[in-house]
Write a structure and sequence with these properties.
Structural class: mainly alpha
Number of helices: 8
Number of strands: 5
Shape: rod-shaped
Order of helices and strands: EHEEEHHHEHHHH
Largest sheet: 3 strands, mixed
Strand content: 5-15%
């Protein structure tokens, strides 16, 4: 499957729209490990080590793994995105200041061999429905669906509000009608009313 990997896989979008939290790891084997229950994605944090490894004559890590890991980091944390820069500064990660390897204009799932399964799972998760109301509010990938959903929510809220107002008003009208009836009965049986009726 030659799937185009886009901005849905940026870390800021994963967190904002899918509720996936980034957990940093120093273990390369755990890179891109996604825990569905905790909605947590492990990301290898030592990018500079990988870049040094690429430049080194002595390869401790296979070059294909190093290159794929750098590509995946650049996919998750693109250096052209100001939101990513703020996110990394907040997380105390220096990815932005570090040089990046040249990446193709578009990355496809088939460009990855070692991390392909984990990226496929992450892509599927990023395309699924948002797990919370906050993500529902910020997920505007499908604008028509977003507007339809929130229009339906607004109609539901207005229906409940106006239904409640109508019920309260009906109860008050019934009460006032009953009180008027009681007053009329009381007035009909009072001695003054009887005297006026006989005259």
């Amino acid at each position: 499957m030659n799937l185009l990997l886009g901005s849905d896989l940026m870390a800021v979008n994963l967190e904002r729209m899918s509720g996936i939290q980034i957990t940093w790891t120093c273990n390369l084997e755990e890179h891109l490990w996604y825990d569905r229950d905790r909605r947590s994605l492990k990301v290898y944090s030592l990018k500079q080590v990988l870049q040094d490894q690429m430049m080194s004559d002595t390869k401790i890590i296979p070059e294909s793994v190093t290159k794929e890991t750098l590509l995946s980091l650049n996919l998750l944390f693109p250096n052209w995105d100001p939101r990513t820069e703020r996110y990394l500064q907040k997380a105390n990660q220096g990815f932005f200041a570090e040089a990046t390897i040249k990446i193709p204009r578009q990355l496809y799932l088939m460009d990855f061999y070692h991390w392909q399964d984990r990226l496929a799972e992450l892509h599927d998760e990023s395309q699924s429905s948002p797990p919370s109301w906050k993500q529902l509010w910020t997920d505007r990938r499908n604008r028509l669906q977003w507007y339809t959903f929130w229009f339906a929510v607004a109609v539901l809220v207005l229906t409940v509000v106006f239904g409640t107002i109508t019920s309260v008003t009906a109860c008050m009208q019934t009460r006032y009608a009953y009180e008027s009836l009681q007053l009329a009965r009381t007035a009909a049986h009072s001695p003054i009313t009887c005297l006026l009726a006989t005259e």
